[in-house]
Amino acid sequence: MSENLTNHHATAHSATGETTVTEHLTDLYTGALAANEQIPTAAMVSAGLIGGYGVARWTGVRPLGGAVLFAAGAAAAHNWWRKCGPITTAALGTTYLLGFGLSHPLAKKIGAWPSVFTVTGVNAAAAWVFADSH
Description:
Blueprint lengths: L1 H14 L5 H16 L4 H19 L2 H23 L1 H25 L1 H21 L2
Helix pairs in contact: 3-4, 3-6, 4-5, 5-6
C-alpha cells in the first residue's frame, strides 16, 4: 500500500510542476553517464591499473586495489560497449585482464612499477586505437 501512496505522491508533485525524487535520480544518473562517456577509456584503464596497484601497495589491502581495478575496468567496458560493441569490448576487456595478470610475472623480471607502467601503456594504446580515436 505504501508503494501506491508513494507513486501517487510522486505523480501529484509531478503534475504540479515540482520535480520528484525519481526524476532527480534519473537526471543524476543520466548526467553521470554523459560525464563518464566524455572520459577517454585509455585514461580509465590507466587509472585502473596504476591506481589499483598503488592503492593495494600503499594501503596493504589488496582487495581495495582490486576494487579500483574493477571499477575503472567496468567504466571503460561500459563505454566500449556503447561506442564499439561486444567484440571490441571483449577484446579490450581481455587485454585489460591479461595486462593485470601478466604484470605479476613481468614484475619479477623488471620490477613492480615498471611492470605496471608497461602493461598500462599497452592497454592505454589499445583503448585509444580501438575505441577512443573513433
